[in-house]
Structures are given as C-alpha cells and as structure tokens.
Write a structure and sequence with these properties.
It catalyses: 2 superoxide + 2 H(+) = H2O2 + O2. The chain is mainly α. The chain is built from eight helices and three strands. Helix content is 50%, strand content 10%. Strands 2-1-3 form a three-stranded antiparallel sheet. Helix 1 packs antiparallel against helix 3. It is globular and about 45 Å long. The structure holds fe (ii) ion (FE2).
C-alpha cells in the first residue's frame, strides 16, 4: 500500500481572495505531492511498514528504522499535516465561520471566548521562527491546547490529537503576502471550515475516551 494525495475538496481558486489560486495549486500539486512521493520512496525499502497508517507511523517514530526515520518524520508529517489542512479549509461562508457544538463549549470554557482562542492561535503562528505550524490540539488529558511545531512535525508524535493547524511555511503565503505572515494568518480565519474542525474535535474526544477504557 502506498500513500496517496487525497482529492482537494474545492477548486484552486475557491479560497480567493484570502488564498490565491496559484499558491493553492503549487502548494497542493508540488509541495504536498512531493511529501507523498518522498514518503513512499522512503518506505519502499521497508515493506513491513507499508501497512501502517500515517497516524501510526507518526505516533511511533521510535519504531521506524533509524535509516528512514527523518524522511518519515518530515515527509510523513508533510503529508499528514497538509491532508488535515485542506480538509479544515473551505470557501468563506457566513454559516460556517465559528466553532459549534462541543468545540464551542470547550473553547469558551478553556479560553474564555473564541476571540481569545484566536489571539493565542495567531500568536503561536507568528512566533514560530522559520517554517512550521500552529495547532489547536486535544492533549493527553483531553484539554484543548494551542502550540506550534517546527518543520513538518505534528502534535500526534507527542501523544496529542491534532484538531487543525495553520501552515506557516513561506510556501503557504509568500506569493500573495510576501513577508506579511500576520496578514496571511488573519486572512485564513475567513476560510476555516469550522463544521469540519468541530467534528474533528468531537471525534477526537470519542477516540480519547475509548482509549481510556
Ligand atoms: Fe505547506
């Protein structure tokens, strides 16, 4: 089994004007496809790992042979992170512009308000030096946590469950925003798919609860 680039759930220009079509096309067809190709190439010499799901590989990097561990961490992370990213974005839509259900309650209870949560996510995205991601994740004690990771690392490698992430590699924004990462990070809040993100949170809670029993 080889890993595959999933279908993009919207057209390249669907997130305009916040994310431009050229960036979307390059990001998806070159960067994400590149991670998938490099991951499959690394795994090709280790057929015993070919049945592992991407989540299993990244949760158990210590069980991946050292000779390909960095390649799996970077390219497997790149594949997993971008798969989450595409699914948690959607064309701007006023009925899908804020958290709902359990996620809405958890954000209010832990951060005081959605606005505080957003501020902390923006801060995590802006303070990441160099390339990486800002995340909203469910941590080991089932609380929401905002963090950032370097390169293509994912919170799943630290035992957390990623709810959604903001890609702050320059390839995600440089064509349109150049060095203005803050403008890009603020803009992306217009195209977050809160229906999907809220569902991911509910599913993560169910999974975490099942694991505890
Ligand atoms: Fe990216």
């Amino acid at each position: 089994m080889s890993h595959e680039l999933g279908k993009l759930p919207y057209s390249y220009d669907a997130l305009e004007p916040y994310i431009d079509a050229q960036t979307m096309e390059l990001h998806y067809t070159k960067h994400h496809q590149g991670y998938v190709n490099n991951l499959n190439n690394a795994l090709s010499k280790n057929p015993e790992l070919s049945k592992w799901k991407i989540e299993d590989l990244l949760s158990h990097l210590d069980r991946v042979p050292e000779s390909i561990r960095s390649a799996v961490r970077n390219n497997g992370g790149g594949h997993y992170n971008h798969s989450i990213f595409w699914s948690t974005l959607a064309p701007a839509n006023s009925s899908n512009n804020a958290p709902s259900g359990n996620l809405c309650d958890a954000i209010d209870s832990q951060f005081g308000s959605f606005s505080n949560c957003k501020d902390q996510l923006c801060s995590a995205a802006l303070s990441r030096f160099g390339s990486g991601w800002a995340w909203l994740a469910l941590n080991k004690v089932n609380r929401l946590e905002i963090l950032s990771t370097a390169n293509q690392d994912n919170p799943i490698s630290d035992g957390m469950c990623p709810i959604f992430g903001i890609d702050v590699w320059e390839h995600a924004y440089y064509l349109k925003y150049q060095n203005r990462r803050a403008d890009y990070v603020n803009a992306i809040f217009n195209v977050l798919n809160w229906k999907e993100i809220s569902e991911r949170y509910s599913n993560a809670c169910v999974l975490a609860s099942a694991l505890r029993h």
